[in-house]
Specification:
With about 525 residues, this protein is mainly alpha-helical. The protein has 19 helices and 10 strands. It has a 3-stranded antiparallel beta sheet with strand order 1-2-3. A hairpin with a 2-residue loop joins strand 1 and strand 2.
Length: about 525
């Protein structure tokens, strides 16, 4: 440890440069240690910061000389006389002005860089807020710190903040810009309260304009988009070796939980087989932001359990897998990677990217191009909307998805017009139904045959993805054809006649379904 001593009064503080391995760095000599060695304040490669600090020390030295009235020059005496007269006009004294200046220019905790206070803030808040909130704050702090780095936080101005948001927020809409600016404003208030910037008056962020959020209707994915994506994942798994196949099937589990239970992506990837109770058909999911506390998902749709049994039977890995000498992989990153590969495969085939995986490219603050989802949480929004349309029960839907009943009613109630789309969404099934047996040995009912018809309809466009899908499609089609050509004991007619009417109404785009029945048919009166 050392204590700094004052430089000689006739010495001026200056920014000094020095080189290390070809790089130029800056420092200011501030005095000597108790051992007599020179002591320095270092500023890395920031020449401007070093010069500003030297100027500040020179101002302090001048102020100290002014404190010794016998040593002040005639010019300094004139300045002091002017200051006293000027302040008297406002009813203030030199002492009050000096106290205000010190409070606003020199923070209580000393001068800290933007990077330093960012680390201090995150360390302070780590145990105060939920894990997912902390991760969100950490991202924002890192972005802000990377922009300003070694600049002193107390010297960050409103103009600096405006320039920061202009650079990093080029591609932001108001719904991204609003929470970002609100957080940084809150962050500055926190720094002020704890003495890392001046304690008096406004902060640099108080004058930054914050746009209003734009309330938008969430974008929904089409049932065919969800089906095609899942079948692509199935096909990819069937092409791979054991470890890769099990990894991909683990990602399919996560997709199923998001698509058909509305579970948040960050929660879905943390579900393990221990959380899935096949006997009672219940799933345990971490409560948003919690590290251990879980909630139960009851009354998931039959297709959810069809998928989970199929994937369990196929050995889906939900714990990550270990390659030799490497750490366990991150399920969230694995899901993101596989989704990107799916998007690339569509682009390679010259087809348009479906909304369910569509992305936007934007320029980040560091000048690099970055990618973000075009429709945030589209899979979760789709589940809530289709489930709400199917059951018209906000309590049931919110209990599964884990959000509020009020939010479900306010946002999702009228998003899906045709109940047929909701029916199709939950008819998306795996290529193989594991442990499905006919009840009491009875043959299929017309409704069961119709569900089988929908499964075949979904599977048909994807038979080229893998032999498993093709063989299952052919097997289902053979089973349905056999049933259609049997005599219905009640009507005495072939089963195909009762199914044909249901298929005709369902496939007719002019018919609107309500409460599970075809209710409205659009007729063109001009033809």
């Amino acid at each position: 440890m050392y204590t700094r001593t004052d430089m000689a009064q006739d010495k001026e503080f200056k920014a000094q440069s020095y080189s290390v391995r070809g790089k130029t760095y800056w420092r200011v000599r501030t005095g000597r240690t108790e051992a007599g060695n020179a002591s320095y304040e270092t500023f890395g490669e920031d020449k401007a910061a070093a010069e500003a600090y030297a100027a500040k020390l020179n101002d302090r030295a001048k102020a100290k000389r002014l404190g010794e009235l016998d040593a002040i020059t005639k010019e300094e005496a004139n300045d002091l006389r002017w200051a006293i007269q000027k302040l008297a006009h406002y009813g203030a004294t030199v002492k009050e002005a000096a106290e205000w200046f010190v409070k606003t220019k020199f923070p209580e905790k000393g001068n800290k860089t933007v990077r330093e206070v960012g680390e201090i803030y995150l360390k302070h808040r780590a145990n105060e807020i939920k894990s997912n909130t902390f991760e969100n704050y950490e991202t924002k702090i890192e972005r802000f710190s990377s922009h300003f780095e070694e600049k002193l936080i107390n010297e960050v101005t409103t103009a600096d903040c405006e320039k920061y948001f202009e650079e990093v927020g080029k591609a932001w809409g108001p719904n991204t810009e609003n929470p970002e600016k609100r957080f940084i404003r809150f962050y500055f208030k926190w720094l002020q309260r704890f003495g890392y910037i001046h304690r008096e008056g406004y902060t640099a962020m108080d004058f930054i304009s914050i746009p209003q959020r734009v309330l938008e209707t969430p974008k929904l994915a089409k049932p065919t988009e969800a089906n095609d994506m899942l079948m692509w994942f199935v096909g990819e798994a069937n092409k791979r070796g054991k470890l890769n196949a099990e990894s991909i099937r683990g990602s399919i589990v996560h997709l199923v939980l998001i698509l058909f239970c509305g579970i948040r992506r960050e929660e879905a990837v943390k579900v393990t087989w221990d959380d899935i109770d096949f006997l009672n058909e219940k799933i345990k999911v971490l409560i948003e932001g919690a590290k251990k506390k879980k909630r139960r998902v009851n009354k998931a749709e039959p297709n959810v359990w069809n998928w989970l049994r199929y994937l369990k039977h196929k050995g889906a890995n939900l714990d990550g897998y270990k390659a030799k000498g490497e750490k366990t992989s991150d399920p969230l990153r694995r899901l993101t990677y596989r989704t990107r590969k799916y998007r690339e495969s569509i682009r390679a085939n010259g087809k348009p990217i479906p909304e369910i995986v569509a992305t936007l490219e934007y320029e980040a603050g560091n000048g690099k191009k970055e990618i973000k989802a075009k429709n945030q949480n589209i899979m979760r929004h789709s589940f809530i909307s289709y489930h709400m349309k199917l059951y018209n029960n906000a309590g049931l839907t919110s209990a599964i998805a884990g959000n509020s009943e009020r939010q479900v009613e306010g946002t999702y109630l009228e998003m899906v017009e045709d109940q047929r789309d909701a029916k199709l969404w939950f008819c998306i099934n795996p290529p193989e139904i594991v442990n499905e047996t006919a009840s009491d040995g009875n043959r299929m009912t017309t409704d069961e045959a119709f569900d089988l018809y929908l499964k075949i309809k979904f599977m048909a466009p994807n038979t080229s993805l893998s032999n498993e899908i093709a063989e299952t499609h052919d097997q289902m089609l053979s089973e349905l054809t056999l049933w259609e050509n049997e005599i219905n004991e009640e009507t005495g007619e072939l089963n195909m006649h009762s199914l044909a009417k249901k298929k005709e109404w369902f496939d007719d785009p002019t018919v609107k379904w309500v409460d599970g029945q075809p209710m409205i048919k659009t007729v063109n009166l001009t033809s």
